[in-house]
Amino acid sequence: xxxxxxxxxxxxVVSSPLAAQASPLLTEITRDYQTVRGYFLQAAEQMPESLYxxxxxxxxxxxxxxVAHVADDQYNLCSQARGEVRKAKYTAIEDSLSDKAxxxxxxxxxxxxxxxxxxxxxxxxxxxPAASGNGRTRLGYLNWNMWHTWEHYGNIVVYFRSNxxxxxxxxxxxx
Length: 175
What we know:
Four Helix Bundle (Hemerythrin (Met), subunit A)
C-alpha cells in the first residue's frame, strides 16, 4: 500500500509546473547522496592501508571488499538511472581489487559516474522505467543507490570503531 502512495506522490511532485526547473525530491535525494559519498570517500582515504584486510567477523566482507562493493554498485545502480546497462560483471571490482590505492581511484571514478546520473536526471525522466525492465524507475535506482551506500557506510563505521578510529560522520565537521 505504501509503494503506490509514494509513486503517486512522486508523480505529483515531478509533474507539477513548479517541477519544470527542478524537483524537490530529486534535490533531496541528490543532497543525501552527496553527503554519504563524502563520508564514504573520507572513510576510504582515512582507513590505514594495513586495515584494508580487516573484517570485524569472519563472515563479513573485509574493509577493502566493502569499498569495492560500493564502487561496483555505483555502476550497477546508476547505470540504470542513466538509461544504460553495465557491461561488466556485477561484482567486477569486488572480485579484482583489494589494495587501497587502486580502490580509492576506482571508488572516486565510480562516484563520478554516479554524480552524472544524479545531476542529469530531469523531473520528466525520473519516473521513466529503468533500462533493466524490472519495473523500477530511474529515480528508484538513484534512491536505491543512495540508501544502499548509507547502509554500507553504516557497516564500515563498525570497522572504524573496532579499531579505535573515529568515522568521518563523527569527526568535527569543517564549515
